[in-house]
Design brief:
The protein folds into three domains: about 10-55 and about 145-240, Probable tRNA modification gtpase trme, domain 1 (Gyrase A, domain 2, 2-Layer Sandwich), CATH 3.30.1360.120; about 60-130 and about 255-290, Aminomethyltransferase beta-barrel domains (Alpha-Beta Plaits), CATH 3.30.70.1400; about 295-365, Beta Barrel (Elongation Factor Tu (Ef-tu), domain 3). The protein contains nine helices and 19 strands. The chain has helices at about 10-15, 35-45, 65-75, 120-130, 155-160, 170-175, 210-225, 235-240, 280-285; strands spanning about 20-25, 30-35, 50, 60, 85-90, 100-110, 110-115, 140, 145-150, 180-185, 190-195, 200-210, 230, 295-300, 315, 320-330, 335-345, 350-355, 360-365. Strand 10 and strand 11 (about 190-195) form a beta hairpin. Helix 2 packs across helix 8 (about 235-240). The chain is globular and about 60 Å long. The relative contact order is 0.15. The glycine cleavage system is composed of four proteins: P, T, L and H.
């Protein structure tokens, strides 16, 4: 048993004052929920939720060869990203296994901010530093000095409009999805990004640790008239599942590759640079499946009331053909949903499958992802 205490974000005291229940996530003591996780989920879908995401990593890549370097380190074409925009990508090992999924923001021609997941932040930072050998770049892990706060939900833009200077209102209103720019929110300089992990409109705000409590308090106060409430990891998980978004450690791992995870379009074989894992991933693409077993990640809609959970077997005519990676009742849709790796011959939309719920077969069917898609 580990005796290492989980780390605390710069907002831990704020969560405690709000009565949060905490959980260890990726080595961090994070708010699981503040009251009702169902209420927090609904607030994000109908108004707004305020999240502390300061456990996420931030790795700065600077230098004349920053774009070429990231094109060898990551599977996507980062050189094609315009300044001010962002790209979802993956970092893989030589065998094509997924080390992490991440977002990279291009801040200048020669500068990127790479954001890995909490539990993988140190691993990704180390991998990038190792892969930078021979390139004219500097790789700096800024995770320990950076906080990240997210406002997610249909009211997110309206809340921020009340906190930015008049001359930045157009920036907030006109910022496209997967874009980022410098802004001043409640008098505090931030990197404002229109990104998120909930399936709703929303913004993520990067700020130095020292300014995070003041920013959190200002957003909480400004958001209350709009219906904003603080939201924890429990509803973040149910929101991302409804939106069909993978979670590292559940849907993504070193044992999975982008093609079986449904992330094949993220991989760029057209870029000039030879990236780590290219040979293995080219073979996986040619094979048309991810592994010899021929599995693929699919969405499953429950036809009954009971939900499948991670690790539960997926059955076809009583035979095991897959395994659930994430599953729970959908608060928004009113029926159980799940993500699962299933043998490729059973992945067509409408295929009837069962999930073994502790000895009882519960009916599900394969459906297109995402389960939930917001109204524009």
């Amino acid at each position: 048993m580990s005796t290492v205490s989980p780390q605390q974000t710069s907002l831990h005291a704020e969560h405690a004052k709000l009565g949060a229940s905490f959980t260890d996530f990726g080595g961090w003591d994070m708010p699981l929920k503040y009251g009702s996780e169902l209420a927090e989920h609904r607030a994000v879908r109908e108004a707004a939720g305020l999240f502390d995401l300061s456990h996420m990593g931030e790795v700065r890549v600077r230098g004349p060869q920053a774009a070429a370097f990231l094109n060898t380190a990551l599977v996507g074409n980062l050189a094609a990203v315009k300044v001010g925009k962002a790209k979802y990508s993956l970092i893989c090992n030589a065998d094509g296994g997924i080390i992490d999924d991440l977002i990279s923001y291009r801040r200048a021609e020669d500068e990127y901010l790479v954001v890995p997941n909490a539990g993988n932040a140190a691993t990704v930072a180390a991998a990038l530093a190792e892969r930078a050998a021979g390139f004219d770049v500097e790789v700096a892990d800024e995770s320990s000095e950076t906080s990240l706060v997210a406002v997610q939900g249909p009211a997110a833009a309206g809340i921020l409009l009340g906190l930015v200077p008049e001359d930045q209102r157009a920036l907030v209103e006109g910022m496209p999805y997967y874009a980022a720019d410098e802004a001043t929110v409640a008098g505090i300089p931030v990197l404002l990004a229109r990104t998120g992990y909930t399936g709703e409109d929303g913004f993520e705000l990067y700020v130095p640790n020292a300014q995070a409590p003041a920013l959190w308090a200002a957003l909480l106060e400004a958001g209350q008239p709009h219906g904003l409430i603080p939201a924890g990891l429990a509803c973040r998980d149910s929101l991302r599942l409804e939106a069909g978004m993978p979670l590292y450690g559940n849907e993504l791992s070193l044992e999975s590759n982008p093609f079986e995870a449904g992330l094949g379009p993220v991989v760029s074989f057209k870029k000039e640079e030879y990236f780590v894992g290219r040979t293995a991933l080219a073979a996986a693409k040619e094979a048309g499946t991810g592994t010899a077993a021929g599995r693929r990640l699919v969405g499953l809609k429950g036809l009954g009331r009971r939900a499948g959970r991670g690790g539960y077997p997926v059955l076809k005519d009583g035979a095991v053909v897959g395994e659930v990676t994430s599953g729970q009742p959908s608060p928004t849709l009113g029926y159980p949903v799940a993500l699962a790796y299933v043998d490729v011959e059973h992945t067509q939309q409408g295929t009837a499958l069962d999930v073994d719920l502790r000895g009882k077969a519960e009916p599900f069917e394969v459906v297109d992802l995402p389960f939930y898609k917001r109204q524009k």
